[in-house]
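tool=predict chain=A
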Amino acid sequence: MTMRDSIDACERAHRTCTETAIHAMQQGGPLAEWSLVQVLLDAADITETTADFLLRSSRLHPLICRAAAEVADKCADACEPHAGQDLRMKECAESCRRAATHCRKLL
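tool=predict ok
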């Protein structure tokens, strides 16, 4: 696994979480609960920040990667109960798990 793979995983998680947050709010019901939308937005922000740290080869990237892995796992945990009924939630959970795995490998 290369640094580029980790950047790509974080950028994809950022995009997927952002799109899923919008989708969740549009769907309404349980998907639009604030706790779910909030963790989607948190994961989107931290994975974007992580990609930025990695792109510029920041020496502080382990600090951000640790936080990103934890937040991405929490997001995946929140999305997985809805994954059976909603493909976008499934994709988001998978994307977050992938980003978390890549981030942990950089610690």
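Helices lie at 3-27, 34-55, 61-79, 87-105. The mean pLDDT is 98.
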